[in-house]
Design a protein that fits this description.
Layout (H helix, E strand, L loop, with lengths): L8 H14 L7 H30 L4 E8 L2 H17 L3 E8 L4 H10 L6 E5 L3 H5 L22 H5 L1 E2 L2 E2 L2 E2 L5 E6 H7 L9 H14 L4 E3 L3 H17 L15 H16 L6 H5 L9 H4 L3 E7 L3 H5 L6 E4 L18 E5 L6 H13 L1 H7 L9 H9 L5 H10 L13 H15 L5 H22 L1
Parallel strand pairs: 1-2, 1-3, 8-9
Antiparallel strand pairs: 3-11, 4-5, 6-11, 7-9, 7-10
Helix pairs in contact: 1-4, 3-15, 9-10, 9-18, 10-19, 14-15, 18-19
Length: 462
């Protein structure tokens, strides 16, 4: 079996940050150490002085420029650009430079800019990146020490989605989980029971029959990231009822046999023509709502997060509904991580942290911003956002239903289980299985070996 490259790009990036933060800690002469210490102290004092001057300048109304980075679809881009415009009108001395893109390459870009001290002032992050970032160096500011109101967040959301080692580093911008989006016309034509909770085996039978009836039709579609986060990881959690890694022991909560079964499940979905061919789906990676087969009613279901509801609602002429994601026959959990999977952080090295925090507070807590964003940035993470958007008729019944059905029998994921190295290893192996380069059993063996190697290293360094 082809050996997987163990030092993947994500690992190299994370390691480079750690190395940078540890630079100069090796042995050397006392004179060199003393000189380095003096220089470091002087640099810190200079940086602190610059930061004080910058924040004082902001407070006095002098021009301030902030950089704001995020990923997402066009709807998210337009919403956040609208918020920036509204904030700049209220604060004419503040200019906010928008740096936005799709998901691909975003993590690597942010990690690089953090390690080189060129990161934006406000940064959208996945909560699962916190160990990579804060575990290497204190790159993100403590939001509780800045002028941003965290008390508006829904119960426990900050704790489970924005806190790392007791410090509030991310303001969650969404809450919910994963659901299956269903084209109602497709469902009616093919006998899909929306009131039923389907097992993976039942999905295979249903999808096979649909494709046999219409060779252009597929029950589902998924790109590599979807297979990774919405098919294989939930499958492993369904088998055990636990996150894939125990955060105390750094041991795996699943077995090699469980992993082989999860990989085989993906392979079965392709072999039975349940999933659209992988190459076709890859054309719309990160943009499943723009998939031509989905738009034309030739794909009936898409498993995705509840925060994606607006783009699916606007992508097809048919009515849309939601149902729980498929589960194993012996599921101990739905496999859905009910939480806030992403949010906004402030660069701790920003010379305008106070001003960045004021903008973040406006973005997440101001009624005007909430009305502009609607649910394009995320689904109602604060208590007042529900009230504002429901009153305005903005929150759709579909999205509200999706959040409601994603909570029962869900689980709370831990950050080590979402470690980027583990994500990349699993994603690469899934693609090798799909392309026939390895068997599910070979992939499972490789997964466990590589996971344990990474986890051992992380455990040693904690």
């Amino acid at each position: 079996m082809k050996k997987q490259l163990k030092k993947n790009a994500a690992f190299v990036m994370a390691a480079s940050i750690a190395a940078a933060s540890l630079a100069g800690c090796g042995s050397g002469s006392e004179k060199t150490d003393t000189t380095a210490a003096v220089q470091a102290t002087e640099a810190a004092q200079t940086a602190a002085g610059n930061e004080t001057k910058a924040d004082a300048g902001a407070a006095s109304g002098e021009p301030v420029t902030l950089r704001f980075a995020w990923w997402g679809s066009d709807s998210r881009h337009q919403a956040l650009l609208g918020v920036i415009e509204a904030y700049e009108k209220k604060n004419p001395n503040v200019t906010i430079e928008a740096e936005y893109q799709g998901y691909d390459g975003y993590y690597e870009k942010i990690m690089t800019t953090l390690s080189s001290n060129t990161a934006p002032d406000i940064i959208q992050l996945s909560k699962e990146w916190l160990p990579d970032i804060q575990g290497a160096k204190h790159y993100l500011a403590d939001l509780s020490a800045l002028p941003v109101d965290l008390t508006t967040l829904k119960d426990r959301l900050l704790e489970i989605a924005g806190t790392y080692k007791g410090e509030a580093n991310v303001f969650p911008c969404t809450v919910g989980g994963a659901v299956t989006y269903v084209n109602m016309d497709f469902a009616e034509a093919n006998g899909i029971d929306l009131g039923k909770g389907y097992t993976w085996d039942e999905i295979k039978e249903l999808g096979k029959a649909i494709h046999e009836k219409d060779g252009d039709a597929y029950l589902m579609t998924a790109d590599a990231d979807m297979l990774n986060r919405l098919f294989v990881q939930p499958y492993l959690v369904q088998k055990t009822g636990k996150p894939i890694v125990d955060e105390e022991s750094y041991n795996l909560n699943f077995t090699e046999a469980d992993a082989a079964e999860a990989f085989q499940n993906v392979l079965d979905l392709y072999e039975n023509n349940v999933l659209e061919p992988f190459g076709d789906a890859a054309t719309f990676a990160g943009q499943a709502d723009q998939n031509s087969k989905w738009i034309n009613g030739k794909i009936g279901m898409i498993v995705d997060y509840t925060g994606s509801a607006p783009k699916y609602l606007g992508s097809i002429d048919s009515e849309l509904d939601v149902m729980p994601i498929p589960v194993t026959a012996d599921a101990k959990s739905s496999g859905v991580a009910y939480s806030g999977d992403r949010g906004f952080a402030i660069n701790d090295n920003s010379v305008n942290k106070e001003e960045a925090a004021k903008f973040l507070d406006f973005l997440m807590n101001d009624p005007e911003s909430i009305a502009i964003c609607k649910t394009a940035v995320g689904y109602c993470p604060t208590k007042q956002s529900d009230d504002i958007l429901i009153k305005a008729g903005v929150v759709s019944e579909i999205q509200k239903k999706g959040v409601e059905i994603s909570e029962p029998n869900s689980y709370t994921n831990n950050m080590i289980s979402g470690n980027t190295e583990l994500e990349v290893i699993r994603k690469d192996l899934i693609q090798e299985v799909v392309y026939g380069d390895v068997t599910p059993e070979e992939a499972a063996k490789e997964l466990v070996e590589q996971y344990q190697e990474v986890l051992d290293e992380l455990k040693e360094s904690k």
